[in-house]
Predict the structure.
Amino acid sequence: MNKPIYVTKSSMPSFEEYCKKIKVLWDNRWLSNRGCIHKEFEALLQERTGCPYVFLYANGHVALEVGIDALQLPKGREVITTPYTHCSTTHSIVRNGLVPVFCDINTDDYTIDVNQIEKYITPKTVAIMATHVYGFLCDVEGIDAIAKKHNLKVIYDAAHAFGVKKNGVDISAYGDMVMFSCHATKVFHTIEGGITVFKDKEPYDMINNLVNFGFDGPEDVKWISTNARMNEYEAAMGICNLKHFDNEVQKRKAAYEKYAEMLSNVPGIKLIAEQEGVTYNYSYMPVFFDGYKYTRDEVQSRLQEHNIWARKYFYPIVPDLTCYQDQYGALDFPNSRHAADTVLALPMYADLTVEDVERICKIILE
Ligand SMILES: *Cc1c(COP(=O)(O)O)cnc(C)c1O
């Protein structure tokens, strides 16, 4: 049996590099609550994103939850969102006392269909929350225009999209709040972690309190909040990984190009086309088996027989999950359901060799 190939494998700095970075913690004993490593990491991210309002969290999900809380959207109002995403996107809306209104996706890049958004806008709508699926960008200009016209906030779940640029501009420039997940399985990681970038200073100023139980100064608690702090060890991993990020993306690109060479132009296999002007991060390798000689599930089991682990990502769509099923499961999202039924995320990580990609593709094609 060949060595297993999993769907992803975390990028890591060298052991020595990481140890050097955390050594200071044995001297200062400041392990969490915005220590010196945290501040250094924050400054690097401000530089990289070109935005001053960058905040770090314990994970991507709490970053969304607390970040939305800081936007202070009135409770009970509606947020137009996508069914084709991680449940975290929807949970962060619902756990903030807001109501998700699902709008189907387009079939080009599988992000929210901007041509359908307006039909869901009501007097109760306060925001649009979309996901840059697999690192492919939503129609950020289209969404921006709708939001301006109807006075809505724009929130992006950019969990997959760290480092992606549009016409040379970091994508955190688009939206009132943008969240990047830094989980170990994501393209850029801090072991566990999350980042939000805000357009305005006001929500950013509130966040300090909200990630720390709602404390307002040392003696009073003004908001009923949570603990969502990133610790110094995570920030240190972030600093080390950031240094290697562009290089790791180049390695992923080589794997991606081999996949594209072998799988494009095969009848019944669809890859997402590259988007014009977008510098991609090659975070995932989504492939759609639609009318291929094997079904998606058959391809997945054939790979598994060779100890290769691909993932149905995203499947099922959020409205069909048990916790949302009774409210939204009966609604029609044909494009999202079709994507979920045909998609397979193939192995993709920086250390995946071109030979491994070749072997994976041969199994799929044989
Ligand atoms: C991973 C992910 C999240 C959650 O991030 P964590 O860091 O794992 O909490 C949210 N949204 C999407 C689209 C994700 O892929």
Remarks:
- The chain has 13 helices and 13 strands.
